[in-house]
Amino acid sequence: xxxxxxxxxxxxxxxxxxxxxxxxxxxxxxxxxxxxxxxxxxxxxxxxxxxxxxxxxxxxxxxxxxxxxxxxxxxxxxxxxxxxxxxxxxxxxxxxxxxxxxxxxxxxxxxxxxxxxxxxxxxxxxxxxxxxxxxxxxxxxxxx
Length: 144
Known about the structure:
Layout: H1 3-20, E1 25-30, E2 37-46, E3 49-57, E4 84-91, E5 98-105, E6 110-119, E7 124-131, E8 134-143
Antiparallel strand pairs: 1-2, 1-8, 2-3, 3-4, 4-5, 5-6, 6-7, 7-8
């Protein structure tokens, strides 16, 4: 390998590692109560602002026609499959943390202040939803 191709390879590997330290991608969420897989959520970057939609519902009781009956905003009565549950998260300056957005729990229709932190080399994502000092953190797993 030439010096130039080694530099290019190192740059590409560094870029791939950096991309993994982002919430962008496909994630599996786990139900807090049952420990069972709940859904797959696809997080996308739209000009530095992250959003996330339910790509697949994994619950045994999930039906394709399920809608958000508890939502109080523009998502009320809309299908859970394809629903945008993450809105407005931005990268915190100088940190591998995305915050300032909201996450919706379609089960109760409530929106929570969002904080997402990639961990374990970007293979897992700590997703914290909170209202004031109260909240809960889930660990989501990256999917290929």
